[in-house]
Every structure is written in C-alpha cells, then in structure tokens.
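Question: Hello, beginner here. Any chance you could explain the protein record under this note? Any guidance would be welcome.
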Amino acid sequence: MDRRERALTPPSGLMPPPLGRFALEVKAVPELCRFVMKSRTHGLPKGDGHPVIVFPGFLAGDALTWPLRRRLTALGYWNAGWRFGTNLGLKPGLLVQMVHYVKSVHAGQKRKVSLVGWSLGGLYAREIAKRIPDRVRLIVTLGTPAARDLHANNAWRLYERLNDHTVDAPPIETNLMELPSVPVTAILTPFDGIVAPASADIGNGPTWETLKVGGTHIGLAWNADVLRIVAERLAQPDGSWAPYRSRA
C-alpha cells in the first residue's frame, strides 16, 4: 500500500449527514441567485486558454454547471460540459466514452485537459485521469464522496436503485480509494447535507489537498469561493503545482 492509498484508508463510523442538514440543501436556490447576480470574475487570475471539462453531479446535467462554465469562459478558458445528458450513475461503457471524449478534446486543443467534477462527477474525473494521466493537467473535485466511505451520504440508496451495481462495486476495474497521479484539489463544505464532509476529505500530500468552503453541497456548483479556488488552481503553469494559498 503506497502513501496515496494509506491517505484514503476507510475509517469506521462515518454516517450520512442528518436529515435536518439535508433539508437545508434548499438554500442552494438562493445561493444560485446570489451567484448569478453578484459573482464576478474581476480580480481572479486569467486563464491561459487550456481546455477544461466540468462533470455534473448525480441527477444533474450540463445545465446546472453552466453558471460555473460561463465564468470559466470569461476567464479565458476553453471549456465544456460532459455532454452525456443527465448523470444517472456509472452505466456500463460510460467510462470508456468519457475517456474517449477527453482524448478527443486533448487532440483537438493540443493541450492537456483540466477536469472539474461536482460530487459524483469528481469520481468520474479521478477515474479518467487514472487511465490517461498524460492527457490530464489537474483535477478539482467539489463535494465528491469518492474517498473513505461511499455509503456516508444521502444518495447511495437512490443510486443503487437506478443502477445494477452497488456504490462500492462499479462496473470497472479500479481501486476507488486510490488517487490519480495528477494533482488533485478536493473542495468540501462542512455544512454538506448530502455527503458526509469527512468522506470527501482526501487529506493533504505532495500533489493533493483538501480545501473547505461554506454553503450547501448542491450550491458548490455555483459558489463564489469555489470559483476563486478553481480559477487559482487552473491558472497554475502546467507541471508546476503548489498547494492553494488564499489571497484573503
């Protein structure tokens, strides 16, 4: 077991967020309104034009990642959604299609691709990077329950009803607890009502880190603090990753 695997060893006793906190996820609606009305890219580092793909969370699609992607465009990045409709889970063959998609973007743009994954989409980003690390620049995950305990969330039962596999036995060969070799920044919120914050914590190491912001789990896709972190992470020169340092 290497350092990455040790950092993600499943602990015992993790529980999904309580129902009271889950109910507070309705705050994501006013969070979206604030983001649309007030969030700006002024003062954020400008992009170098390299391609960025944003993967949606479970039961979400490209429409819900559009506010974030619009601002990435304003910062100067070539960016796109995942283009596979509503994310209903890791259906057989889906990972192969996503890998091919990232390869095609890399070939078309002739530059490494950064991957931003919201919740379940962050798990997809990590698995893609494990298979084609030479084409992926870095990863940022938002509330991704892809480490430690995949049952420490309020979505796993519905996920298993919509799929023919359990959350910890997807139809791919992989070690879900293992991080890819590319830099990874995991963003979580302590107020998450869907994913236990501890289960989204990947720790900190030579090329991986965990950062905390306020807000809801759903609202991570339109969170001004998330935008600031994503902009700073993406602005790093290719191959020269360093831990995030807030400008606040």
Summary: The longest strand covers residues 136-142.
